Amino acid sequence: MQTEAYIHSIETLGTLDGPGIRYVIFFQGCAMRCIFCHNPDTWQMGSGKTINVDWLVDDIKKYLPYIKPSGGGVTVSGGEPLLQSDFLEVLFRRLDRLQIHKAIDTSGFVEVERVKGLLRWTDLILLSIKSAQTQCYRQLTGQSSDRTFRFARYLTKINKPVWIRYVIIPGITDSLPDLEALADLVSTMPNVQKIELLPYNDLGVYKWADLGMTYSIPDAKPPSEQDMISIRAILASLLPSKEIT
What we know:
Blueprint: E1 4-14, E2 22-27, E3 49-52, H1 53-62, H2 64-67, E4 73-77, H3 85-97, E5 101-106, H4 112-119, E6 124-128, H5 134-141, H6 146-157, E7 162-168, H7 176-187, E8 192-199, H8 204-210, H9 225-238, E9 243-244
Parallel strand pairs: 2-4, 4-5, 5-6, 6-7, 7-8, 8-9
Antiparallel strand pairs: 1-2, 1-3
Helix pairs in contact: 3-4, 7-9
């Protein structure tokens, strides 16, 4: 089993990636090329810092006095953490012995067979749906949506708790057909506990420039708070039984 991994960075007291206070590990490497990505520096595979599972578990233990009382745990993110699923299974088995809540923030762009073992040790999936419409998904990511949707169906089959994450990009992912497609997907997933609507931000523009890359949606603007309120209301009408934040 893999006991070392490539990581980009660590956030020791995160509050945005799952319940409670989280120890968040950002893994290096991603097969997606999302045109709105604010971490393009995590794309390259086989780079970043090499980290050993023993060191990581010991470091996580230091923060348990803050994490456990809050109902928090450890979240792995990226990049795409499932590209290093063998390492994650080793890590999650170790964390399970310590009774630590374990979440994966993922695009779901993975072959299901590769991660079945890991999912047995996973408490929560934060599933990022770039678009629920296949053509838009490809335009946004450079990849087919097939793997993500197969992954979503498998999570439902095994009744794995899921939070859906969906980025609102005005003029790109916020139309009524976009929201209806998302609602259609979620309506087939009784295991979805809530939907997190994330307003697009343009912080990544500067990273793309620093990396000598051309940002393909330079005119995109974050949605207003009123826009977000209206979109939440639409989704709430389409999915009245789901929590939407």
